[in-house]
Amino acid sequence: MRAILIQLAMKNNSILFWRTFLTPRCWESKKERLFCLSVIFLFVACKKELITTAPVLPIVQLKVQLGQDLFFDKSLSNPVGLSCSSCHAPETAFTDLNHSIVSEGAVDGLYGNRNAPSIAYSMFTPSALHYSIPDSSYKGGFFLDGRVNTLVQQAQKPFLNELEMNNPNPAAVIFKLNAVSYFPVYRQVYGDVTDVAAAFNNIADAIAAYEASVGLTNRFTSKYDYYLKGQASLTVEELSGMQLFSDTLRGKCTKCHLISLDPSCGKALFTDFTYSNDGVPKNPDNPYYTIPSAFNPSGSNYVDVGLGDFVINRAYNGMFKVSTLRNIAITAPYFHNGCFNTLDEVVHFYNIRNLPGSGYPPPEVASNIDTVNTGNLHLTPQEEKDIVSFLKTLTDGYK
Prior knowledge:
This protein has helices spanning 2-11, 14-21, 30-46, 59-71, 84-87, 151-160, 170-177, 183-190, 196-211, 223-228, 236-246, 307-311, 343-352, 381-391, and strands spanning 130-132, 137-139, 261-262, 267-268, 275-276, 320-321. The protein is mainly alpha-helical and 399 residues long.
């Protein structure tokens, strides 16, 4: 027994050592017990690195790491050069890094039809599009039109979209996956690739895990968050803006952008996940209008009807999901077609849109416009500025 223990200790075969050490025979007599204890000290002294080696990451952490690697990998597009982060960059709260109206795809000269929305805090979206009777509105779902039900499904779509990453099929993506430097991490999390469909789903599952990670994409570190904890003070303008924002008769912002704490996370998410037509005009500078007719047969006459197209009901034409206002100050341009470049323009539009002589072009979709909560708010110029000041307190990274 003594020879076996010493040999195992010196060879650093820790698993066999401990299995042997913990057998009843090792503790048969006082003499053996004293010897076993001495071997423990010898084992630790000779192999000190055993207690200083970093522990193996749990699968959950490995999955987030894998998702992050996939999210930033530009080799997974066709042609190579476009990653998820190309359109959803952390520096701009996971929107287009260049603040483009719409993002350019992997193929030069091809553009998507909508402004890239932030994926930060999207994990809290109700997972399936459904009609909410209390809200008198559709609610939930992912993308601006709610066309998929989960973060995993959302993560799959860009890989195969001709206007985005442009892969012909899942097999093309998996072929590239086998060549990436972090493929061993994939195998640690999901095992060997034996089925293309399953592997493609695994890729999306890992990306979704990254997008749902607290502290990476969902930080809750804005000035407003610290204000709620008593660790920051708001200026006079910011406080005034917060009061106007919350006033259901004046600013009316909380009619859609809830400031109450969401039960899913105990934080304010600044959205109710419903759908609305805000009456925004078309954006004549939208590059989508200029792409080949094979992708956009309507050219500049194209009209994005949003939710109505997905639910196949004209009663919902022009409606898009209410976005969170967290990080809104760094995610310009605004609305589904990027028609406004600043928060000042957005708040002013909400304030006077319905007034005669407001000067705005006709709305892209004239039906179903919300004229109850937006369009004629009677706010003064200073009150508009105060609301903008408050919105700027919602940017993560304050501390």
